[in-house]
Design goal:
Strand content: under 5%
Helix content: over 70%
Protein name: Efflux protein, MATE family
Radius of gyration: 22 Å
Number of strands: 0
Keywords: Cell membrane, Membrane, Transmembrane, Transmembrane helix, Transport
Membrane topology: Multi-pass membrane protein
Pfam families: MatE (PF01554)
Subcellular location: Cell membrane
Length: about 425
């Protein structure tokens, strides 16, 4: 059977999604290795790593526009047959990454102490976290350069090279980390140095890839301003997510230690499966952006629903798998009877929401690929303010426990589902051209 021109093959979608998943999973896997290495130093270094890691992670969490925003702009130019200009988006994103990264690294040296003490209080954990964080922050420009590199390469539908670059940096660092921490006796500081080493190696590969393209490397303030416009919307969207998850963790902690532990277990599984589904969104972003850049609105619409169907199928499959694992899997994470007793209060929400997440994440990718960041900002903020935050704090007031927290998450996801479905059906996102107007 001849493939209809407005469709793309499942092989094409997976060819973009699977390497993207590898990139998304590489950092969490490296964190696991780092945690295992530092864990043998004792409780204080491990707690310090947790505090420092949370703070450093905020850099990449809040500046996702360097990857997702760059992908959207580069994909349109790539679809229009203007590869050099697509790569030029990567150049400007890299300049932005360097400038913002240097500023954050310098400001972070001043704020590391106060921020660590806010999270950990006064004492040896905070002191150790500050030492780790001040070194880790030196890698900030390289973290952001890697994000920018991922962005433009996804835009030109190359997700294989980013996987190689990120794996190379993390693999070398994973080998170096135990040597620095245990063999050479650097302790917790060795972990931070290894972390920076990984970021430098990966960023170096992405910079080399730009040089090989032989495009102009000078800053273009007009392009940078355009990227910052989309960046504003995506940063506000990220802040809405953070407000929700911080509130959920706070309410769980105030409920009971068992509820907090159970929430942590289920939330980490939710986060991991989000990576799986987000890789499909990255494929959607690249393909839809390219179709709109080529002026093919019909193809963009067809691809959007095609990828959404894939998201639904994957979400249903994940829900079935984790429903079957409801008994044995939580015991892998904890033997604590009180925590295990709390987990079912969140588990069945987690399972039931997988199909919803599959559709929401796929359509997020479609709308991001179309450059519809302002709508996504408003939809996410609205779902947080109307759905999640009132329910989660009401859960605390009325003592609904973990069930109330996950009712809030369900409301958040269902409101986003309605919003993105209505937007997708309206077609107002499908603005053709190399640059969204």
């Amino acid at each position: 059977m001849v493939e209809r021109p407005e469709r793309v093959s499942a092989r094409t979608v997976l060819g973009l999604a699977v390497p993207a998943l590898g990139v998304l999973a590489a950092e969490p896997l490296y964190v696991l290795v780092d945690t295992a290495v530092v864990g043998h130093l004792g409780a204080v270094p491990l707690a310090a790593l947790a505090v420092g890691g949370v703070l450093l992670t905020q850099v990449s969490t809040q500046l996702t526009f360097l990857s997702y925003g760059t992908t959207a702009r580069a994909a349109r130019l790539h679809g229009a047959g203007r590869r050099a200009e697509a790569v030029a988006e990567g150049v400007q994103a890299t300049w932005l990454a360097v400038v913002v990264g240097v500023v954050l690294a310098l400001v972070g040296q001043v704020l590391a102490g106060p921020l660590a003490r806010v999270l950990a209080g006064e004492g040896e954990v905070a002191d150790a976290a500050v030492r780790w964080l001040r070194i880790g922050l030196l890698g900030t420009p390289f973290i952001l350069v890697t994000m920018a590199g991922n962005g433009w390469m996804r835009g030109v539908q190359d997700t294989v090279r980013p996987l190689r670059y990120v794996l190379a940096g993390n693999a070398l660092s994973a080998l170096l980390c135990p040597l620095l921490v245990h063999v050479w006796g650097w302790g917790l500081v060795g972990s931070a140095v290894a972390n920076v080493f990984a970021q430098v190696i990966s960023a170096g590969f992405f910079v080399r890839a730009l040089l090989v393209e032989r495009v102009p490397l000078r800053p273009d303030l007009a392009r940078i301003r355009a990227q910052l416009g989309m960046g504003r919307d995506l940063v506000l969207r990220s802040l809405a997510f953070q407000a929700c998850f911080v509130s959920a963790a706070s309410v769980a902690a105030r409920t009971s230690a068992a509820a907090a532990g159970a929430h942590q277990v289920v939330l980490q599984l939710w986060t991991f499966l989000s990576l799986v589904l987000d890789s499909l969104a990255i494929a959607a972003q690249s393909l839809v952006g390219a179709a709109l850049g080529a002026g093919d609105e019909r193809r963009a619409r067809a691809v959007s629903w095609q990828v959404t169907r894939y998201g639904l199928v994957f979400g249903v499959a994940l829900g079935v798998v984790f429903a079957a694992l409801a008994g044995p899997l939580p015991r892998v994470f904890t033997p604590d009877a009180a925590v295990l007793a709390e987990i079912p209060h969140a588990w069945w929400f987690f399972v039931a929401l997988q199909p919803v997440a599959g559709v929401v994440f796929a359509l997020d990718g479609v709308l991001l690929g179309a450059g519809d960041a302002a709508f996504l900002r408003n939809a996410t903020l609205g779902a947080a303010v109307v759905g999640f935050l009132p329910v989660v704090w009401l859960a605390l007031a009325l003592n609904w426990g973990l069930t109330g927290i996950w009712i809030g998450l369900a409301a958040f996801m269902l409101l986003r589902l309605v919003a993105v479905l209505v937007r997708a059906r309206s077609g107002r996102w499908a603005v053709v051209g190399a640059v969204r107007v």
